[in-house]
Amino acid sequence: MNWGYIPDGDDLFRATIHPLAFKSRNRFIHERVFHLQFKDGSLIGSVAWERYVPSTRHVHDFGCRLAFGQNQKYRDEGNEKYRRIYCGSYALSAEKIRMLPKTEYLDEVTAADVVHHVEAGEIAHADLKISVKASHYDDEGTKTAILDRLWQSCRGPIPHKCNCDQNIDSHPSLNLDSPPQGAYIDKRSSLTRSWQIARFLIINWCWHTFLKHFMGKP
Amino acid sequence: MYLSQNVATQAILVLRSGAESTTSTYTYTNDNARGKGLSATQDVLSPDSQGNYPSCTISVYVNSSVEDPRSAHLIIDSSFSSMPVIWESELTHEYNELGEALAELTEIEDSEGLGIEQPVFAAASSIALQLMANSYPAPRIFNHGPRSVVFNWTEGFQNLYLTISADKVSALMSIPAKIQRRIDYSMNSLLNPALVLRSLESASRQQPVALISAPAPKPSKSIL
User: Fold this and answer.
1) Alpha-carbon distance A144 to nearest alpha carbon in chain B (angstroms)
2) Which of A12, B58, B138, B208 could form a disulfide with A47 if both were Cys (CB 3.0 to 4.6 A apart)?
């Protein structure tokens, strides 16, 4: 069994961070939910795998840790004006990502996949990798087309205010848009959800024990 | 219906009535004819004090080589009584805001792609000027990296994107279910962005787009 393989039916969650997905006056830009960057002929992004964020509470914990980590980095660099605020997440299935190469007018996309890849101590982190071959289309136009398709596949939003952001008056999570696929609904049965949460808690305990004893991290 | 770029950029007349819109594309026989056609249209399209267009008949002259214009024009019957109007001052205001937003993008200093490069700003400004000159509605703008800026228009579930990099422009039209059309242009070949966008709009709606070349058909033939 391939433990790292993400099944087509599994959901992936993309955290929305202010100001990355916004512009001036807190206007939400849904095409910037996914932050994709070209690297070696592929567009690379990040998502969280449902298996390791099995409930919305875990999804939001992941997002809050993400923003906290970015703020910590800025504090260390002395740039506290670049405050990051986690606003919530959007969900999409792994199948939607893998269908990108079959999309009409996206012939230059040769492969698209999402691969489990623990990063920065986050066991839920997965790489979104979209391979793009050279074509008559401009790379920047290709990126716009892919971002449009990803947004069209999303469900949500699942808005959230982290504890450290509760004092923000007009929290940007209020400005999140609803994608065309509609609201996020957890379609798992309560039995399945309970089993997946129990499995996650055991794996997470093992993971943190490993980090603590062998990597020296708390 | 697919329009090749060289045809689409010659001349397009867009007529809107409420939520419906119809588009006709003409290829003119010479500059004189083009001048007559557009001036006739502009005269009729003057709004009243309430900002609405009166019901009217528009005559578009497509061939000036014929002695009697009445025997050489097409009659387009269309009601404009409910046509929304964008005042010039409103359009100018919207484009001023667009200019400010573009300027803001060039001033952002960061390493995460929130700002844009100077050549992209120059290209986007040039296209914005041409769109405003053609009274095309101001777009919403955003960027997804420093190497381009994206103009976006939304109507219902349909999105029209113009991704502008320093030397290329990519047009994309999509609905939630699929991408409807993609066309790339070099900056040099994109003579009139507004006309290209209008041709994309009409083609994606699968509305009839009549291509007419000289000699003109008999008068009184409706093409819409």
Assistant:
1) 7
2) A12
The residues facing A26 across adjacent strands are: none
Q: Cα separation of B43 and B21, whole Å?
A: 20
In the block, which residue shows the tokens 């040099």? B188
- From the list B114, B163, B178, the residue facing A141 with the nearest CB is B163
Is residue B145, in this structure, part of any structural domain at all? yes
Domain count within chain B? 2
**What do you get for the CA distance between the two ends of chain B, in Å?**
15
Q: What is the predicted ipTM?
A: 0.86
For the stretch A4-55, pLDDT in tens is 789 999 999 999 999 888 877 778 988 889 989 988 889 999 999 999 999 9
Same domain, B79 and B92: no
Tell whether B61 is covered by a domain: yes
Q: Has residue B224 been placed in a domain? A: no
Token digits of residue B154: 């939304």
Q: Where are the domains of chain A?
A: 11-187, 189-218
H helix or E strand, kind and range, residue A93? strand A85-93
Asked if B161's CB is within 8 angstroms of A148's CB, the reply is yes
Q: Which residues of A touch B161 (CB under 8 A)?
A: 144-145, 148
Asked whether the beta carbons of residue A31 and residue B172 sit closer than 8 angstroms, the reply is: no
What residues make up the domain containing B61?
A: 5-85+208-212
B134-166 pLDDT, tens digit per residue, is: 888 899 999 998 999 999 999 888 899 999 999
What is the residue whose two structure tokens read 């960027």?
A: B143
Contacts of A155 (CB under 8 A, 6+ apart): A90, A91, A92, A179, A181, A182, A183, A184, A185
* pTM for this predicted structure: 0.73
Residues 6+ apart with CB under 8 A from B92: B132
Kindly determine whether residue B174 and residue A35, on different chains, have CB atoms separated by under 8 Å.
Answer: no
Rg from Cα positions in chain B:
19
Whether B100 is in a domain gets the answer yes
Are residues B127 and B68 both part of a single domain? no
Inter-residue contact A139 to A38 (CB < 8 Å): yes
Residues of A in contact with B165 (CB under 8 A): 138, 140
